[in-house]
Write a sequence for this structure.
């Protein structure tokens, strides 16, 4: 098992200003995930589009236990893709789970108001997201499924217990990514400058939206994790990255490296797109719809602007101006003292704690369609977070 000071194998890349130059990151945009890509290619060759649709319907989109009649390529893939890497540190995994145990509602809020908008800034990655259509046509499902993945991965034993929910969820997401890589280039609106769909740079950026952005988001709302907790949380998501098919040598070796890599990808990729604006608008509308009453209607946009900053928020269509003033009066109803809310982390922290719990309680009722179960949280986490609803 790796020592705390060296959580990744010796082949891990040290990210520097040199290898974070645009040409170096651009080289990652042609790299996929051979293990999952070969499975999808074999499945498609054997059964064509019908086999692919059956996979998406009966396995990837269904959280019930693994069907007994899966095709052989999928069964082989499940056997080959479930093991933790040799460098996994079980003590760090438990410490990362404990961070989620303590701050889960706020982490779910960070997912909706920071992690997802962060992903929507990628000028070449976000058009591929938009190509799937379901993200903008059903943003509720997108939030629920992403929040469910976080709960599956970070609940106690999610990554380490035999048959843990986290492991199976990751395996399904990895196959879905491979299916997108196989099918998206055939779309009339696909452009070669997008690169290979769900390539290694986009996978890294998405993983960092949960790991580094999670740590940074907690800091922005006044939750000061210890350095050890920060490293543990990054380590958990590095393991998820490995299981999702990210090359080990690309994973950040510590918190500093994670920030540097996130900043480098942002410098290479981020900018305004119509797709990013549309996805963000759908996200904000969804949160306003599911949160109870109308007190919080304008708060999601405020939180996104707070987390991202004015420039990135503007690229997503969220402008400043009178936004803070519009939010102020409804928040006073809840007893939130409003000052310079965009600069006051204490005010934001109070909003985040209250809104995080309400968001979790609300999304459990979101209809996902088909045979997909509703959002589920283990009983011990519900009790710890003080989140209530009837099952």
């Amino acid at each position: 098992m790796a020592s705390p000071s060296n959580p990744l194998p010796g082949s891990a890349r040290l990210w520097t200003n040199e290898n974070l130059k645009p040409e170096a990151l651009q080289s990652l945009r042609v790299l996929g995930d051979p293990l999952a890509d070969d499975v999808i290619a074999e499945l498609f060759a054997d059964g064509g589009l019908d086999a692919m649709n059956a996979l998406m319907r009966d396995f990837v989109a269904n959280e019930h236990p693994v069907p007994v009649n899966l095709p052989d390529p999928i069964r082989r893939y499940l056997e080959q893709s479930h093991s933790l890497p040799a460098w996994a540190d079980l003590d760090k995994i438990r410490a990362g789970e404990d961070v989620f145990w303590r701050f889960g509602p706020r982490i779910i809020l960070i997912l909706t108001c920071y992690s997802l908008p962060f992903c929507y800034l990628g000028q070449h990655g976000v058009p591929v997201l938009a190509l799937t259509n379901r993200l903008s046509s059903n943003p509720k499902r997108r939030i629920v499924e992403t929040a469910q993945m976080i709960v599956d991965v970070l609940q106690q034993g999610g990554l380490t217990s035999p048959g843990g929910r986290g492991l199976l969820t990751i395996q399904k997401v990895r196959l879905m990514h491979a299916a997108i890589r196989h099918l998206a280039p055939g779309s009339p609106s696909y452009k070669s400058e997008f690169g290979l769909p769900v390539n290694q740079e986009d996978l890294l950026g998405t993983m960092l939206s949960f790991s580094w952005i999670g740590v940074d988001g907690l800091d922005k709302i006044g939750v000061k994790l210890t350095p050890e907790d920060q490293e543990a949380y990054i380590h958990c998501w590095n393991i998820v990255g490995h299981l999702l098919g990210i090359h080990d040598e690309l994973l950040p070796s510590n918190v500093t490296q994670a920030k540097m890599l996130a900043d480098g990808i942002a410098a290479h990729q981020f900018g305004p797109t119509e797709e990013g604006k549309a996805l963000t608008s759908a996200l904000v509308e969804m949160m306003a719809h599911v949160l109870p009453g109308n007190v919080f209607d304008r708060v999601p946009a405020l939180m996104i602007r707070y987390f991202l900053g004015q420039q990135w928020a503007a690229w997503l269509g969220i402008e400043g101006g009178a936004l803070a003033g519009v939010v102020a009066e409804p928040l006073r109803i809840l007893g939130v003292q409003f000052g310079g809310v965009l600069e006051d982390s204490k005010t934001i922290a109070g909003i985040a704690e209250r809104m995080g719990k309400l968001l979790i309680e609300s999304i459990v009722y979101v209809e996902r369609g088909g045979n997909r179960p509703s959002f589920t949280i283990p009983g011990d986490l519900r009790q710890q977070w003080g989140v209530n609803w009837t099952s």
User: Anything to note?
Assistant: The chain is about 60% helix and 0% strand. Residues 1-7, 322-343 have pLDDT under 50 and may be disordered.
